[in-house]
């Protein structure tokens, strides 16, 4: 019996890897990297905190992967996916607003809600919506002079 067959037989009846597990391993990796960077700085306590968080998340991810309580693990994964679906539109909107030409940004019209592409010039400006014709004030903090 080769090693792959032994591993397959060991994992029979266990939950395995899912979306929440991938997320936990990813966050654990980020904490491990931060702890490694903080190791040689005067912030020894912060290094310990990130190292401990890394260890706890990694341990929980492995526990979930090897668990035989499949129903509970599926429920945890479903809860994670529901929360992720609430956050993803916000992240997509951030990505969409930051991508493209850095000389522009997007803002919704306060009157009709139409999405407008405005020039990123520092200061307070008056803008008019081409859809409804309503004029409104726009403050640009970061942009060109």
Order of helices and strands: HHHHEEEE
End-to-end distance: 71 Å
Mean pLDDT: 88
**Radius of gyration computed on alpha carbons:** 24 Å
Give the neighbour order of strands across the main sheet. Answer: 1-2
Topology overview:
Elements: H1 3-11, H2 19-38, H3 44-66, H4 70-98, E1 104-108, E2 115-119, E3 123-128, E4 135-140
Report on the architecture of this protein:
It is a single chain. The protein is an alpha+beta fold. The protein folds into two domains: 14-98, no CATH class; 104-140, no CATH class. Helices cover 56% and strands 15% of the residues. It has four helices and four strands. The strands form two sheets. It has a two-stranded antiparallel ribbon with strand order 1-2. A hairpin with a 6-residue loop joins strand 3 and strand 4 (135-140). The radius of gyration is 24 Å and the shape is elongated.
Offer a quick outline of the entry.
With 145 residues, the chain is α+β, with helices and mostly antiparallel strands. It has four helices and four strands; from the N terminus they run H-H-H-H-E-E-E-E.
Salient structural properties:
145 residues; 4 helices; alpha+beta; two-stranded antiparallel sheet; 2 domains
């Amino acid at each position: 019996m080769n090693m792959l067959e032994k591993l397959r037989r060991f994992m029979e009846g266990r939950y395995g890897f899912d979306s929440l597990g991938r997320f936990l391993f990813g966050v654990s990796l980020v904490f491990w990297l931060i702890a490694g960077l903080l190791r040689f700085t005067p912030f020894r306590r912060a290094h310990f905190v990130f190292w401990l968080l890394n260890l706890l998340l990694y341990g929980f991810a492995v526990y979930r992967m090897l668990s035989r309580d499949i129903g509970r693990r599926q429920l945890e994964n479903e809860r994670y996916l529901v929360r992720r679906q609430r956050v993803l539109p916000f992240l997509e909107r951030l990505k969409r607003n930051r991508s493209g030409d850095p000389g522009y940004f997007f803002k919704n019209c306060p009157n009709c809600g139409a999405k407008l592409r405005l020039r990123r010039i520092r200061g307070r400006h008056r803008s008019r919506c081409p859809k409804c014709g309503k004029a409104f004030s726009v403050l640009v903090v970061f942009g060109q002079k």
